């Protein structure tokens, strides 16, 4: 699977950005009308694979507002290696336009990563947009709004 397809699988429809576009190891989208988000798989020093996710908030005309790098291992924890049964830090390796994880990345792991990224991105969303997304999530899940639960 190509890196861009792995990014789509990892983030999918879970990210709180609109109009998301996947280009290589990067996802770009709108946070609100003036802010854009950039999510990128990155390597650490002396690493052969992608072990980090760098999230940048960009103002449409002024440039970088803020940036944070998540270590994938801090979000998912140690995982069992695919070929061996030892514990490893999750890392995505690429070779000739193909990518593979050194461990099994479950749907639950993808959800944890998306929640960590969304927690950061939501700090920069306008209050109206953030509340609208929460209402949309409740409608999709069938959950009752918190103000109705007593």
Question: Could you give a quick summary of the protein structure above?
Answer:
It contains four helices and nine strands, in the order αβββββαββββαα. The chain is α+β, with helices and mostly antiparallel strands and 150 residues long.
Structure, explained:
- This protein has four helices and nine strands; from the N terminus they run αβββββαββββαα.
- Mean pLDDT is 86; it is low at 144-150.
- It is elongated, with a radius of gyration of 17 Å.
- It has one domain.
- The chain has helices spanning 3-11, 72-76, 107-121, 127-141, and strands at 18-23, 26-30, 35-42, 52-59, 63-71, 79-80, 87-88, 92-95, 98-101.
- The strands form three sheets. A five-stranded antiparallel sheet has the order 1-2-3-4-5. A two-stranded antiparallel sheet has the order 6-7.
- The chain has 150 residues and is α+β, with helices and mostly antiparallel strands.
- 29% of the residues lie in helices and 32% in strands.
- β6 (79-80) and β7 form a beta hairpin.
């Amino acid at each position: 699977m190509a890196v861009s397809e792995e990014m789509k699988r990892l983030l999918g429809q879970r990210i709180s950005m609109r109009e998301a576009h996947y280009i290589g190891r990067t996802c770009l989208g709108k946070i609100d009308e003036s802010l854009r988000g950039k999510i990128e798989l990155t390597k650490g020093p002396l690493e052969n694979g992608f072990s980090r996710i760098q999230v940048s908030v960009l103002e449409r005309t002024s440039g970088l507002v803020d940036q944070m790098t998540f270590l994938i291992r801090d979000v998912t924890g140690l995982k069992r290696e695919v070929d061996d049964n030892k514990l490893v830090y999750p890392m995505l390796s690429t070779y000739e336009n193909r990518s593979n994880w050194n461990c099994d990345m479950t749907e639950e792991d993808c959800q944890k990563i998306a929640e960590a990224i969304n927690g950061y991105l939501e700090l920069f969303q306008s209050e109206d947009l953030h509340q609208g997304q929460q209402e949309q999530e409740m409608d999709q899940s069938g959950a009752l709004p918190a103000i109705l639960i007593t």
